[in-house]
Each structure stands twice: as structure tokens, then as C-alpha cells.
Design a protein that fits this description.
The protein is of the alpha+beta class. The protein contains twelve helices and 21 strands. The chain starts with a strand and ends in a 5-residue tail after the last strand. The structure holds adenosine-5'-diphosphate and magnesium ion. This is Ribosomal protein S6--L-glutamate ligase.
Length: 404
């Protein structure tokens, strides 16, 4: 395959290793500087130039977009996507993960451990917010920090208030987060490729420091992850819309607590620590996907007018409870069940004979109007005329437009 690695630093460890891994496997690979692209737009023909030359036919792109050029970098990735080039991470996924608030918002509705977090604007709301996450000591975070810069631990409520006031006066948005003390300055980095964790390490903060980032002096050790940590890392990556990611988790009392998902995870620390060929795993994954790429369903489905994806919630007491998917006869209303969510379980393509339980959620594809008919009156602006013919008690949570 012909692969472009988008990176501002061709000589850094990660770029060199990825390039080498691709070459060793017989691929044609180039590291291209993300900001040297020009994006051309005209009717029916999205185009890209690299150093004033029209780019050739690439089969795949591996974006390594640094935080300082997120806007430009994701614009270039999006252009490749629109030109039907397979991108190992999409612009949408990169944008989701870059913002700590946005990523926690996306994760929060799923059964995935995250440290309790609040986001407030008004001074009056600060104190109650700190109390809600368990009081001091409390973690305060900038939304787009990296390498531990922008993460603080306030020992007292007074300190926390002062720090927040100062940061907000500097027009910074801050998150207030529960301090997961039992993690004891340690965190887990899981390197996810597709639906697998290909390597994992534990980073341990040194001395008085509570941040375990390698840039803050944290020391890495290889770790054998329990299944729960593997599942959590893979699901978080999928929820973000990423395929290659570094997932950072605290080891909480109740299991893994995700702090962030990195869309351009570094290779040096994890390869040195584990001795594993992470670069090779990334390249092999991309080569396999190029032959059989996954499609961004949301983008393609909206093209078929009137059809889309929606979630149907089965509340306690619903007459769907105890029925099989076949017996719900959703398919007669032009609705197909793609996935069943049950607690923290995800069941893709559930069998028609599967019986439904209270609090199940069905991810469906079908006629939006029919699914909209399932929203109860109080959450719907106006009733659809065909409501009578539809199951009354199923609740549609969101259609494709509003799912991020
Ligand atoms: N809520 C928390 N409780 C305990 N430790 C935390 C918490 N949040 C962050 N940390 C520590 O601080 C480090 C940096 O936080 P993180 O959110 O990953 O920011 P960055 O993007 O700067 O790496 C983490 O690796 C972890 O060791
Ligand atoms: Mg981190």
C-alpha cells in the first residue's frame, strides 16, 4: 500500500518507527508535514496539494496531529476522507479526543468508568461543584492540556476556588474532577489498535508528584491488563470514533476510570517499556483496513433521505420486556436492530430470538419517522399521526443528527 504519515516531526521516534515498520513490510511510505498541504475545494472535486504539487494516489493516511495544529491538521485529514482515502483516525475522532470535556461528555452516557467531573462557568457554581465531586483535595484541569501541564491538585476548597478564579480570569475553561486518591500517582496507558490492546504500561509518579506523565518524571513498567481494563480501553476508543489510540486510565476502587483518550499516542515510552512492536501492529492494522475499510456510518446513512440511526430505550414495565426482538415486529416498521446494549455489555447483530430485558437499549437503523414515533409525548414537540400503529412505550433517545 501507499501510506502517508502526517506529522510535523519526521525525525521523532514515533514517525521513524512507523516509517520503518511500513518499509519492512514492503509498503511505500512517506512522512508528510501536515501544514505543508493546501486544501482545494470546488464542485464535486475535493483536492489536495503538497508543496504546490497535486498529491498522488494514497491508499491510507496515518494522522499524527499535534495539539498545536488541531484545526489545520483535522482539516487536512477530513479532506483525505472526502477524497475516499482510508484514514487510520478520522478528523471527527481526533476532535472528540482532543477536548477533555467533550470526550468525557461522550463517554459519560456509556457504562464506562470515568472520574466524576463537573464543568461550570459562574463563580457561584464553583463551590457546590467541588462538593459534588467529593470536596478537597480536588483535581483542576485545563480542557486541552497535555503532558501533565494544566493538571493541578488543590489541597483545600479555598485553594481550589482561588485557582479556578485565576484560570477563568485568564479566559481558560477548567474541569473540576474528583481526585482518585487510591490510584496513588499511578495510571495505565493502553495502546489500542482497532479492537485490540496491543501494549500496555503502568506509569508511576515519583516523589510528591501526583501526575504520572513521563514528562513529569513518571516511570513506566509493563503491565498485564485485566479483561475489564482491556474492554474499557477498546470501548472508549470506539466511542471516540478512533482506531489508533492511547487510553489513559486510573486504577479506581470500582475499576478503570478513563481520564483521556489520545489520538496520536507516542510510541517511544510504550515500545521501550514493553519491548513490543507497536509500530508494526499499527501498520498491519492499516494495511488490513485498506482492503476492507470501515465506513463512517453516520455520514453515509444521512445520505438516504428519511433513514438514520436511533436508539430505542426499553423501560421497566414496557410491553417489549420479555418479548424477543422478532416479536417486537420492529422490522415491519422498517426498523432494523443493529446492536443491543445491556448494562455494560454490547451485543452486535442480536439474534431475532433474543429476549428483551428492562433497561435494554437498541441501536436501530431505519425510517426516522417511524422511530420518531416512539418518542413519548413529553420529549416530542408534536405527535406523529401514525403513532397509534407503533409501540407506544419505547423511547427513542437520539437520532443520528444529535449523536456525537
Ligand atoms: N482525577 C484524578 N485523580 C488522580 N490523578 C489524576 C487525576 N487526573 C489526572 N491525574 C494524574 O495526572 C496525570 C495527567 O492527567 P491527564 O488528564 O492525563 O492530563 P494530560 O493530558 O496533561 O496528560 C495523569 O496521568 C494522572 O497521573
Ligand atoms: Mg494524560
Amino acid at each position: 500500500m501507499k501510506l502517508a504519515i502526517l506529522s510535523r516531526s519526521p525525525k521523532c521516534y514515533s514517525s521513524m518507527r512507523l516509517q520503518e515498520a511500513a518499509q519492512n513490510r514492503g509498503h511505500d511510505v512517506q512522512v508528510l508535514d501536515t501544514i505543508k498541504f493546501a486544501i482545494d475545494l470546488k464542485r464535486g472535486a475535493p483536492d489536495l496539494f503538497y508543496r504546490q504539487k497535486q498529491i498522488e494516489d494514497y491508499d491510507a493516511v496515518l494522522p499524527r496531529i499535534g495539539a498545536s495544529i488541531t484545526y489545520y491538521g483535522t482539516a487536512v485529514v477530513r479532506q483525505f476522507q472526502e477524497m475516499d482515502v482510508f484514514c487510520a483516525n478520522t478528523a471527527h475522532g481526533i476532535n472528540n479526543s482532543r477536548d477533555k470535556l467533550r470526550s468525557l461528555q461522550l463517554l459519560s452516557r456509556h457504562h464506562i468508568g470515568i472520574p466524576q467531573t463537573t464543568f461550570v462557568h459562574n463563580k457561584k457554581d464553583v463551590l457546590p461543584a467541588i462538593e459534588r465531586v467529593g470536596g478537597a483535595p480536588v483535581v483542576i484541569k485545563l480542557i486541552e492540556g497535555t503532558q501533565g501541564i494544566g493538571v493541578l491538585l488543590a489541597e483545600t476548597v479555598k485553594q481550589a476556588e482561588a485557582i479556578i478564579e485565576l484560570l477563568q480570569a485568564q479566559k481558560q475553561n477548567v474541569l473540576i474532577q474528583k481526585f482518585v486518591a487510591e490510584s496513588k500517582g499511578r495510571d495505565i496507558r493502553a495502546f489500542v489498535v482497532g479492537d485490540r490492546v496491543v501494549a500496555a504500561m503502568r506509569r508511576v509518579a515519583q516523589g510528591q508528584e501526583f501526575r504520572s506523565n513521563v514528562h513529569r518524571g513518571g516511570i513506566a513498567e509493563p503491565v498485564e491488563l485485566p479483561q475489564e481494563y482491556i474492554d474499557t480501553a477498546v470501548r472508549a476508543t470506539q466511542i471516540m470514533g478512533l482506531q489508533v489510540a492511547g487510553v489513559d486510565m486510573l486504577e479506581g476502587k470500582t475499576g478503570p476510570q478513563i481520564m483521556e483518550v489520545n489520538s496520536s499516542p507516542g510510541l517511544e515510552g510504550i515500545e521501550t517499556c514493553t519491548g513490543l512492536d507497536v509500530a508494526g501492529a499499527v501498520i498491519e492494522y492499516i494495511a488490513a483496513q485498506v482492503d476492507f475499510p470501515e465506513i463512517d456510518v453516520r455520514q453515509r446513512l444521512t445520505v438516504s433521505k428519511g433513514y438514520g440511526v436511533s436508539e430505542i430505550y426499553i423501560p421497566e414495565g414496557s410491553r417489549f420486556v420479555g418479548r424477543t426482538i422478532q416479536e417486537t415486529r420492529l422490522y415491519e416498521h422498517d426498523i432494523n436492530v443493529l446492536t443491543l446494549y445491556r448494562g455494560n455489555k454490547v451485543i452486535p447483530n442480536p439474534k431475532p430470538q433474543r429476549e428483551l430485558e428492562p433497561n435494554d437499549k437498541l441501536l436501530c437503523f431505519g425510517k426516522l419517522e417511524a422511530m420518531r414515533g416512539m418518542v413519548p409525548a413529553k420529549t416530542r414537540r408534536r405527535r406523529q399521526p401514525d403513532i397509534a400503529s407503533l409501540p407506544e412505550d419505547a423511547v427513542s433517545v437520539a437520532d443520528v443528527e444529535s449523536v456525537d
